[in-house]
Amino acid sequence: MNCFPDEVIELIFDYVTSQRDRNVISLVCKNWYRLERCSRKSVFIGNCYSISPERVIERFPELKSLALKGKPHFADFNLVPRGWGGFVYPWIEAFAKSKVDLEELRLKRMVVTDEGLELLTRSFMNFKSLVLVSCEGFTTVGLAAIAANCRFLKELDLQENEVDDPKGQWLSCFPDCISLVSLNFACLKGQINLGALEGLVARSPNLKSLRLNHTVPLSALQRILSRAPQLVDLGIGSFVHHPASETCTNLKNTIKKCDSITSLSGFFEVAPRCKNITSST
To answer: Are strands 65-69 and 155-159 parallel, antiparallel or unpaired?
Structure first.
C-alpha cells in the first residue's frame, strides 16, 4: 500500500473505526505511524493514570473525541477509599492549553468539578457531546454552564452520577435555538422546572432520545410527546400511577400517535401495544 499517495491511505484509514485495529495499523511502518497519528480522531484510555494528557496530545494532535476511565470498577461497590483520585480537570486543562478542538468527552468513574465543566465550555467552541457515567464531584451549576455555552451540543448523557442540584434551574439555561439530539438526566434526584423542560423540547426539532428523572409527572410527559413527535427513545425514572387512571389512558393515546417511538423505558405497565415499539421496560 505504500505505493499509494498519503491522501489515499488516509482515506482508507478513515474506514478503520476499531481502536485496537488503529493501534495495529500504526505499528506497520514509520509512514503508517505518521499518517495514523495525524488522522486519529478518537481515543479510548482505560486508565487515566496510564498516560499523561500531554503525551496523548503529542501523539494525536487532531483528536476530536476522548473517552477516559478513572477509578477501577470495584469503586461501584464502595471499595475504593475517598480521595483515591481520578480527576478529569488536569486533562481538560492540558487540552485547553494545547488548543485541541475537542468535540466529545466520555468519562466513567471520574471526579468532575463545576470548574472543570466551565473550563470545558470556555475552551472548546465546537463541543458537541458530554457523557458522564458513575462520576461525582459536580453539581447542576456545571451542567448549566454546559447548557448555556455549548452552542453546538448534541448529546448530554448523565448515567448513575452523584449530582447535587442546589438551584434546579439548569434546563432553563439552554439557548433559544439548539441542535440537541440526545438528553439523559434520569440520575438527577431534584425537582425539574417543567416549563423549562417543555420549552427545551419544543425548541429541539432534532431531539431523538429523552431520558427523564422520576420527578417528571405523566401529565407533563403527554405534553412533551405532543411537542416532540419525532422522539425515538423515551424514558422516565419510575412509574407510580395506576395503569387504569385517566392520566395513563391519555398518555397511552398520545404514545400511539407517535409513530417514531421504538423504545419506552420506566413505565412498562402503561406501554400501549404498538407495532413500532420494539423495546419496553
So the answer is: unpaired
